[in-house]
Amino acid sequence: MNEMIELGKVQKLTVIREKKFGIYLGEKGSAEGVLLPAKQVPEGTVLGDELEVFIYRDSGDRLIATTRRPYLQMGETAVLEVADLAGIGAFLNWGLEKDLLLPHREQTRELKKGDRILAALYEDRSRRLCATMRVYDYLSGESPYQPENMVSGTVYQVNPQVGVFVAVDNKYYGLIPAGEVFREYQIGDSVAARVVRVREDGKLDLAARRQAYLQMDDDAEMLFGEIEKRGGSLPFGEKADPELIRSELHLSKNAFKRALGRLLKEEKIVIEENGIRMIKK
Predict the structure, then answer these.
(1) Closest Cα to residue 270, out of 254, 245, 216, 280?
(2) What is the CATH number of the domain that holds 126?
(3) pLDDT value, residue 122
(4) Do 254 and 238 fall into the same domain?
(5) How far apart are CA 165 and CA 187, in angstroms?
(6) Backbone phi and psi for residue 259, each to the nearest 5 degrees, phi listed first
(7) Are residues 194 and 220 in the same domain?
(8) Minimal CA–CA distance to 129: which of 81, 63, 37?
(9) Rounded to whole angstroms, how far apart are CA atoms 154 and 182?
(10) Total-model pTM
C-alpha cells in the first residue's frame, strides 16, 4: 500500500488516473492508487485535483475510497448502532455502505439489534477494519474539565468493586467510584455526572449526583413521590440498613436522611415506629 494512503482515516489524495468505473487517488507521480467509484466522484473532477476521502476495504477486502464520512476513524471512539447479528459477531452502522464488524471476542456484553454501544476502530491481523467495545486504550486523560463541571458520557465497563467506567464525551477517562453508585448501570447507558476530582493522570472521578445542598430538593421530591406510590407510607425509616435504602430508593443513607429532613420541615411526613407516613392535607 502506498505510504500516503492510510487505512481507516480521512485524508487528502490526488487524482492520478481516470477510468470509466471511477478514478484512482494517490500521491502525485505515483503509479499506485486507490479507487474512488464513479458514483462518488464529484462532478467536474479532473486529473491533478485533490479530494478528501476515507479509505477502507470493500466486500472483497480491496482498498477503496469513499467521499462519505464514517462516524469514527482509526483510533477514535463513537456510539454506534447494532445493525445486524451474525455468527462471526455483530455488524455496526458506521455511516458507510458496508457495515462494520464487531467480532464476538471484542464484545463486552450480549448484544441485540438496535443496541447503541461505544466502540473504537482498529485494524485486525488480516488488515481489515473492525470495531471493539474494549475502548479503555482509546480514551484520553487530557480533558478540559475541572471539579464541579457537569459532563456527559457513555458507560463502557461496570465493576461492582471499583465502580462504573464512563467515557466522558465518549473520549475521556471517567469513573463513578463504587461508593457513589446508587443505581444499576449497563454498558452503553448514557450518563450525566459531576466532576468531583481530576487525578494527576487526568482521569476524572465522577458523581452521578449534584452537590448535596442542590441534590436535596430533587431527592425530597422523589422520596415523597415514592411514599405516594406506595399508598402513603414507607415501611422503613432513617435507621434502616444502608443497603435497603440503596436498593429501594437508589439513595445513600445520608442523602435519604437529608431528604427526610426536608420533608419533615415542610410538614409533609411524620416518622413513626414502623416507618414513614405521609401527612394528608
Answers:
(1) 280
(2) 2.40.50.140
(3) 94
(4) yes
(5) 9
(6) -65, -40
(7) no
(8) 63
(9) 17
(10) 0.72
